Amino acid sequence: MTGAPALVVIGAGPRGTGVIERIAANAAELYGGRPLDIHLVDPYPPGGGRIWRKDQSPLLWMNSMAEDVTMFTDDTVQLDGPVRPGPALHTWAADVRDGRAVISAGPGVLEEIHGLGDQDFPSRRLQSAYLRWVYEQALAALPSGITVHEHTGRALSVQGPRGGRQRVRIQGRAEPLVADLVVLTVGHLDAEPDAEQQELAAFAARHGLVHLPPDFTADTDLTALPAGEPVLVRGFGLAFIDLMVLLTEGRGGRHENGTYVPSGREPVLYVGSRRGVPYHSKIGYTWQGERPPLPHHFGPGVVEEILNRPGPVDFRRDLWPLVAKELGHAHYHRLFTAHPERTAMHPADFEEKYAAADTGSPEFAALVASAVPDPADRLDLDALDHPLDGVRHDSYDSLQDGLRAYITADLERRHDPRHSPDLAVFLGLLSVYGQLTRLGDTGQRWHGFFSYLASGPPGPRLRQLLALSRAGVVRFLGAGMTVEADEENGVFRARSATVPGARTDARALVEARLPDPSLRTTRSPLLRGLYEDGAAGTDTGLLSVDPADGRILDRDGRPHPRRFALGPYTTARASGAFTRPRTGGPAFRQNDATARTVLAFLRDLSCPDRLTA
Q1: Phi and psi dihedrals of 586, rounded to 5?
Q2: Is position 235 within any domain?
Q3: CA distance 160 to 177
């Protein structure tokens, strides 16, 4: 320790990098030339952290195009600090190719960079190289008196009085780090199995079966899944896509002209979920023309009014109507401006009546029906969210044809600019997410809905899924999937509402989803210790933080003066630590607010006559 004020940032992935970048951006205004030691703690290398580390399979892709990924602020981000623009991923790759940016990367990553197109889906190891470069740029932008010290290890606890210095204990380090402030940016974490997973694991152990609980697919040992054997997979999101890739191409199979050529080492994946369909494909075209004005029906003023209401906020009652109104506004604004030939009402007339209508009323439905003749051009959020509701098949074979037709139609629509209102809804989802982060824990339903519509797989992955289905390597089970433990026969048994009466038995079950971000089940001794030390948690298990600056709240609602937290396990979780350029980036806004609060506190700490904390 140098005697300078000390800040410990726990988590060296993109969120921790973002905080350091904002400290660099705000230091001149708020901190002057004062010295500061920043201690960055993570068992994984800075920049990518665990999820985006470079040592993972090159088969694993991002689910965003290169042109849709940035770690830098722009003038669409609502922040008090200065905008510090920088290259999005595709621009950075061009800079590397042209020698304007210098990186240290292996030949495989360099080859990928040299072949990367703006609308390609990069590998995660390429994104790791970008994040490492951003981290290095953030370090280079720090004033000379601010020094970052990297500590390779896992933070185990934070202890200390509210009014005094904190002590951060690190695995493998004898002495704790002493900090004036601590910021947690630890990202996604492992979790203990819940009661159902414990029962399934015990059942598997009794009968010699394979049970893989919720986990990060890249970290899961898949060698226990035997070739040619049926495997039940519960979950149809991005974790499933990773699983699908690693168990097919990862075992030597290959895709040739829309056909899958198996290696013979693949298991047979029987996949189902609550919805019974994969996440919607990423949209495969870029925005053209006028953007919908967002936010419109659900903006900061509405959020302030909700925050000032007495009593708890119920998502379905208080927020969902506003979400639906905003998404509908984005959809119909685009339809009327870009595709007016498919409308039957003057835009101003429709907008006035839309603004006054209750989205759940018969009058609203009549308004939309009269203004938009083709039902395919109308926004039906319930039908989008539950596409197999009421759909029944008399056999699993029939379901395979039906699901392939559904996926094919989704791919065609999401790659056809004639359906550009879908892209407007995507922008609406980003806008809504930015508002909801100010309201605390809105529950899992919203995050699941957002991911399903806005954070789906690349189109090429769904085309591969179709090929795997035709090859018989993937079999669809349908919606409302349930899993039973059959003690008598010693097998897992799956059923679904889509094929009543049918069942599928297997000796292996994979839960294809991430662990829930919950204080109740986390394996992190750091978060458990914070909770035991008085930090507040919500009913869903998220860590309660002040949405204004990320300070951790205690059970009386008081913000801790020296502890902050940002990320998916907090009530202010944003849609991602990086985002699409020019879409507001709520995580960037949060990083800026936290960095400014940190700098002001540390500045005043070094000037005792100004200390107010």
Answers
A1: -60, -30
A2: no
A3: 11
Give how far Cα 260 sits from Cα of 217, 403, 465, 525, Å.
22, 18, 9, 44
Kindly state whether residue 240 falls inside one of the protein's structural domains: no
User: How many C-beta atoms surround the C-beta of residue 120 within 10 A?
Assistant: 20
Q: 528: domain CATH number?
A: 3.50.50.60
CB atoms within 10 A of CB 555: 11
Are 401 and 523 in a shared domain? no
How far, in Å, CA of 565 to CA of 160, rounded?
Answer: 16
Identify whether 33 is part of a domain. Answer: yes
State pLDDT tens for residues 133-169: 999 999 999 999 999 999 999 999 999 999 999 999 9
Residue 401 and residue 547 share a domain? no
4 within 8 A of 37, measured Cβ to Cβ: yes
3-state secondary structure of 94: helix
pLDDT for residue 439:
86
Report which residue type is found at 509.
Answer: L
Q: What is the mean pLDDT of residues 114-141?
A: 97
**Contact indicator for 63, 456 with CB cutoff of 8 Å:** yes
Judged by average pLDDT, the poorest of 194-203, 367-376, 398-407, 514-523 is 514-523
Pair 450, 521 in one domain: no
- Does 42 share its domain with 182? yes
Contact 327, 429 (CB under 8 A): yes
Q: Is 62 helix (H, G, I), strand (E, B) or coil?
A: coil
For residue 608, what pLDDT is reported? 56
Distance CA 353, CA 605 (A): 55
CA distance 572 to 552: 11
3-state secondary structure 109-139: HHHHHHHCCCCCCCEHHHHHHHHHHHHHHHH
Q: Which residue range(s) make up the domain with 308?
A: 300-454
In whole angstroms, what is the distance from residue 9 CA to residue 149 CA?
Answer: 10
Nearest alpha-carbon partner for 399 in 506, 267, 256, 495: 495
pLDDT band at 573 (very low <50, low <70, confident <90, very high): confident
Residues in the chain: 613
Phi and psi for 545 in degrees, rounded to 5? -135, 155
DSSP single-letter state for residue 89: H
The structural domain count of the chain equals: 2
pLDDT of residue 296: 95
If you average pLDDT over residues 13-27, what whole number do you get? 97
Same domain, 521 and 442: no
- For 350, the enclosing helix (H) or strand (E) is helix 347-356
- Judge if 325 and 440 occupy the same domain: yes
